[in-house]
DNA sequence: TGCCTTTACGTCAACGTTGACGTACTAACA
DNA sequence: TGTTAGTACGTCAACGTTGACGTAAAGGCA
């Protein structure tokens, strides 16, 4: 077992954070060294380093020169340990995958917002793995992170109750907390998927398929609910064969759509539950030469969606705004806001670029 | 002036890391509290928390129950301060923009590599701002980051000499260090741009324009050098009007290309120096109905480049490999590798998707 | 049965910094 | 000129944890 593992499950990992590796690295100078060289007390050095009053100009100059001579660098960890009610200056951002466009855009917006408050972002990808989420949360708590932004991979969040009670600001993003009442910024997924489906229905489509993410992912459930609600409102019977769960990669999406196209009564329109499904669907349609014959509405926007032929009609979440709102809420908590938890639900918008406006074959005047 | 500002220029920023904000948050329990409740010494609690031998089963159980009862959480900062030659477990990744696909992909690959070593990544976007780079480096040094991955915004790096001497592992990525000899992982930009240009020349093009980033950005210089070298090898005169510096946005790229298309002797092929220039160029070509008349090779790949009509021919950097190599080098340094600095130069590859294979008008058999 | 070794505790001080408090000297005011 | 207040220092202990060292008791071996 590794050090600090109780109350910090992340420490169970064999790490380089233990002492080790070749020759010891040279020790950095401390205020003691600076004090000795400048001929003053450590407290006086601290005053100068911190820009506090109580040091004469001459003494200050001597200390600055000594600090420069010794390459002295302030130790935030020691300072934070001693100061009463001090903060670490770190916020943890636990996102789905910092490499994908949604998480990357969110991280960027969050970083911008938090930089205003002098906070740094410790970024992590959860890859929908609940155990990794818990490990990283544990590590961040051990580091006394000032707050956490969490796009949870887990479905229940009681394990965070003690951290929340201990005063750790938590803001959920894209998914809501369960078993815990704290701040969240999400999208109205149901409304978004309903909008996508209604848009296709308004265009004349009646056989509309939906390809969705893992069933247990909350946003996936909500999007499916919206899809079904739109069908119901239009009095179009729900065909379970047109709803595909658990599509987790472009390749899988491509396969599913290709299978649809090969079927005897294929859908004339598709709703893709997330970006990689959209991309996979587009590939399948292109391969089959059907990009202008089958309508497609994707969930979430991404760069270049307008340059694809036809342009991709999407339900767009404003990632910049989501990140900015999360940052604002978190900074508010850190500044002392003790109000009831906020649940901001942003509305996505329909962006028409062509792929969602393709008419079904029976309505298409030129039958192309 | 703010605390710890000497030797830590980042601290000049007004921050929330100072004490403050409303009601004090509840103090967390410490080992002292656990020891009191369990009826043992602090040292014995430390033994159990750290999984060290020297605690009986009965005592261990009492301590674990007390820790759970008190919601005790290990304090990594205090532990790190006390342990000799301990590490913070943090690596700073200073990238161009964590929201763009190149930086995002790199961050992800880096995160994956460093997670193997139990390290967390503190991510920051520099936006090509040298002052921000220095501030963030300063902050990370104050936090005693174990290492830094730096895609520098600055041109000179003497300011890092003292950190390097102090034993802080530094790995430059995408750009090399100047005035400092440390590890780096870069791409052979010159070779890549030369490859792009030679490819167009081999396709019959003679009037090839290049749109490039800010002149002082090192990768931009190298790409320009490669472009010029290919022209020279083909004995094609260099036309300064065909080389455009300082293209910083899609909109700007769109404008430049539109201007080219309006000129009396427009280029028949384009080399785009980076992704956003590529995207801007594609928009301009589409608007002018010229996507199949002007050849285009972009620098660096991105998602969906194959779905654009025509598919984008690009010089592709293997972002995953870059990130993995950076991580490997950094972990090696942390594990004690004291060898001479490594300068890994990866070769980009030409990905043909159509846009770079468009022939010039005089060679195009159907003249479209 | 006696002696030696090992184990399970605990004490003390240290890490690098800062808050609280004290002292001496200087400056300002009456 | 004397008194009071303010400034420029310094001392001491604290933050939460861990390394070094010590002690007592128990177990094993001769």
Summary of the model, kept short:
The structure is a homodimer of 368-residue chains. Chain A has 368 residues and is an alpha/beta fold.
The largest contact between protein chains, plus residue counts on each side, is: A-B, 100 and 99 residues
Largest β-sheet summary of chain A: 6 strands, parallel
Strand order in the sheet with the most strands of chain A = 2-1-3-4-5-11
Distance between the termini of chain A: 66 Å
CATH superfamily of the largest domain in chain A: Response regulator
Overall mean pLDDT of chain A: 91
Percent of residues of chain A in beta strands?
5-15%
CATH architecture of the largest domain in chain A: 3-Layer(aba) Sandwich
How is this fold's topology laid out?
The structure is a homodimer of 368-residue chains.
Chain A: H1 31-38, H2 42-49, H3 57-69, H4 76-82, E1 90-95, H5 101-116, E2 120-125, H6 130-142, E3 147-150, H7 161-165, E4 170-173, E5 183-187, H8 189-202, E6 208-211, H9 218-233, E7 243-244, H10 250-262, E8 269-272, H11 275-287, E9 295-299, E10 313-316, H12 319-334, E11 343-346, E12 349-351
Chain A binds a DNA duplex (30 and 30 nucleotides) through α2 and α4.
């Amino acid at each position: 077992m590794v050090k600090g593992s109780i109350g910090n499950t992340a420490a169970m990992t064999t790490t380089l954070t233990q002492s080790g590796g070749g020759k010891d690295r040279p020790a950095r100078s401390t205020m003691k060294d600076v004090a000795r060289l400048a001929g003053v007390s450590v407290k006086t050095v601290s005053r100068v380093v911190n820009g506090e009053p109580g040091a004469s100009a001459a003494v200050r100059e001597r200390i600055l020169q000594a600090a420069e001579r010794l390459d002295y660098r302030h130790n935030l960890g020691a300072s934070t340990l001693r100061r009463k009610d001090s903060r670490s200056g770190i916020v943890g951002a636990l996102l789905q995958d910092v490499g994908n466009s949604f998480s990357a855009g969110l991280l960027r917006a969050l970083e911008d917002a938090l930089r205003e408050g002098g906070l740094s972002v410790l970024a992590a990808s959860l890859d929908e793995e609940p155990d990794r989420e818990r490990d990283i949360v544990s590590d961040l708590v051990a580091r006394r992170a000032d707050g956490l932004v969490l796009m949870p991979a887990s479905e229940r969040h009681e394990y965070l109750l003690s951290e929340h009670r201990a005063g750790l600001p938590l803001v959920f993003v894209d998914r809501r907390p369960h078993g815990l009442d704290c701040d969240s910024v999400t999208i109205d997924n149901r409304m978004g998927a309903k909008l996508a489906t209604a848009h296709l229905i308004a265009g004349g489509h009646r056989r509309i398929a939906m390809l969705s993410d893992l069933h247990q992912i909350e946003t996936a459930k909500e999007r499916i609910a919206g899809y079904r609600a739109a069908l119901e409102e239009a009095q179009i019977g729900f065909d379970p064969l047109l709803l595909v769960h658990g599509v987790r990669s472009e390749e899988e999406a491509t396969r599913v759509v290709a299978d649809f196209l090969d079927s005897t009564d294929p859908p004339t329109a598709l709703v893709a539950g997330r970006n990689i499904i959209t991309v996979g669907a587009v590939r399948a349609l292109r391969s089959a030469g059907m990009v202008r014959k089958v309508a497609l509405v994707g969930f979430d926007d991404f760069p270049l969606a307008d340059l694809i032929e036809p342009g991709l009609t999407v339900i767009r979440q404003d990632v910049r705004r989501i990140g900015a709102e999360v940052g604002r809420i978190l900074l508010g908590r850190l500044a002392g806001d003790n109000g009831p938890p906020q649940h901001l639900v942003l509305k996505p918008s329909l962006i028409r670029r062509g792929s969602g406006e393709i008419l079904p074959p029976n309505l298409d005047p030129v039958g192309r």
